[in-house]
Fold each of these.
Amino acid sequence: MDVLAELAKHHAATICLSITTLDADLRRVMESRPSTAAARLAAIRKLSEAAIPVSVNVTPIIPGLNEHEIPAILGAAAEAGATGAGFTILRLPHANKELFAQWLTTHFPHRKDKVLNQLRTVRGGKLNESVWDSRMKGEGIFAEQIKRIFEVARRKAGIKNDQPPLSTAAFRWPGGTQLDLL
């Protein structure tokens, strides 16, 4: 924390933590090993109190499963001190499509078709889109709806996305010569 705080004084550090859900039951099914949302919010609070710019990434947003939590996640993150926010809609490249469909069958069989159809809606009829401009946010009316929900919730939470740009101005080369990798 002390190193990050010192770097932050020189605009050389910022932190972004992801929060998928505030629902403990859903989190146990979606991500059983990572830190809980409460622990991540506590980390945001500690970083913010140390004057380290911190943002939250609501990711992955899974239409039909957790998109309704966007306002609550952003509100909790803002209350903890986050000053920036972003989001990513779930992408399913390669074999992830089959793994995710199997996961839905196991954990949410009654929602499986809805979730997969909504993902196809934001991915141009597919479960993944690799085009740079749309692969993280999706496209179409449902992706636009998620974006609007996110933006309204971000503004309502008071998250302005006004973090300072990172700078290398305080970087100093340690001197000496660098060893060759050969």
Amino acid sequence: MTPRAKQNGAALLAAMLVATVGAAAVLMSAFGTGGAQRVREQRALALLAQASDALTGFAATHGRLPRPSSAPGDGRERATPCGGEEDCTGYLPWLDLGLPATDSWGRALRYSVTPVFSVAPLARTAAVATKRVQSRDASGALFFTVGQDICSLPAQCAPAIVFSSGPADAMASSGADEANNRTASVGFIQRPPSAELSAPGGPFDDLLAAVPLQTLYERMAAAKTLP
């Protein structure tokens, strides 16, 4: 092989090496960003599970679920009774529950509780849990995952909802489903995340957990705080 051919081969090999390293760097960067995001989502989901458990623990001790905090940084339940569903919707009283103040993205968790479940003693034979959750099927149609159109004693819904507004939490770019969750006091939406503007319900990254009524009653009964 001539010296010129050797030089050309070495130059080609160097160029290929630079391109390979560059492509690998891009892939690693993308994977790292996505991986970090997934870790944050898993932490947020774990916090929601902790919040649901802490809420039932609070009820087992106090004979009722806590009222919401009025402000995200407050951390304590409001002192006055709820006047209705909207009045019983706000922020999770994280300080009273012994939980972190914020989720993975530095924002306080939202919280909505059925008013009658925030009053002790809880009248199990008359209390109707009112919180409903819907999702969307492949065609975009809404369907219930928790509760139904009408909540009643024979067909209960959930006593409380706690949710994270997710990584974006941008009012200007959010879709109809996220806008619904920001203002809802009874009917909430939880569906797979999507960044597509054209997706049914628009872009979505909220994370939500419903407090199970049966679990709540079982823990309260075990603690003898359920009449």
Amino acid sequence: MRVGQQLEVFSTSLGLVASLALHLAAFAYIASATAQFEFDFDLTLPAEVEFGVTDGMDFAAAPSAAARAVAATSPEDPSPQSDALIVDAGVPEAEPEPPRPREQAKRPEEKATSEDALDAADHDQDSPLDAVAAPSTEGPSRLPPGAQLALRIDMKRVRESPLGPDVTQFLEGVPDWQLILSGSGIDPVSDLDRLLVATPNLQRSKLVLAGKHRRDETFSRKSVTRLARSRGKTVRWQQRNGVPTAPWYNRDSTPRTIGLLSTHHFSITRREDLKRVLALAKARELRDAEREGLVVARGPDALLSMGPGEALSLEVEGVHRFVLGSVKHVPERLRVAVSETGADQATVRALATYGSAEEAKEAAAYWNKVARFYSKQLILSLAGFGKTIRRMEVEPDEERVRVTFKLNADQIRFILSYAEGRLRGSGGATEPRQPRQQW
């Protein structure tokens, strides 16, 4: 056989082998990419559920003497007690911007600035509540059984992080910001040090916002006035549940109320959810912070509290309400937190709470099995998550299961980009979900 014929036979054989290898690889990829663990439950978003906690909690809290003293303080002689009673939620605070002294009178020829005009417009309304009361519920209140998906972000850490631009882009990709905050002048990234976004089922009508801003004590009121003016409205302040409140004239179809929880803390909710938010702050204050991995905090800071060094956390209350089918290995409560542990690395810690130590032990074995299954999937390996899953630690701890793993910066950017695309593609959580719709 001549050399040319030998080369032709060799190249043909090589082509057949290569083609077979590519087809096998494609088959393996498709099989791996589409392989799913056989869970005995489905995830869903409940249509009829209200903002609450797993089992509900009752409170009978009356305003404390300190709260009454703060509420009675005159605007000309502000008391430092309102914020002194609150322990910071784990982040060393920068010095707040000093409030600008208000002028007692202006000569007729003096021209007011835009900020002066906003300030005057705010205080021209019939509000006796220039001093901000400490939050408290007057008489019995109840945080009802319900569900809650609560995202907390330490904006101060985000601003200082190398991943800050990526997180900012993700937040700007959430369409709901435009409807709820547009017109108020509030920029969540630059104006806030801590942010809470909570909802029982991702319906925007039930969205709860709360935050701690880094500006002076007039910032919240000026934002309310600015938003009202953009809608051609005026502001009337009233005290409800121990805090000053006013209508929040957002561009969403759901009427909302802003509550000033302290000089730097606020919440934006449906009117009926304000008492629940205050009760949630009390519920988190009463929990064992050390066992939950949180920094000890009081008052509004308890509502926003996170663990030491955490940049963001996601808490799910009433996990069983998001499940169709068996709940045998599903926790009652779940908390996932992300902390920066290096210039190019973050540590993710999950804490799943079960009804008993025996349930937690069985669940740890089950979720280890799930992790092993997905660590072998080709699509996850190609995305760079195979090794991460294989190194994941899933350990029982009494009635809890602790999960720990590490992510690099590229993996975090991939997750944020994916989440942003999903949010943009869906146009935001604007419509009620049907009970059987899966995540």
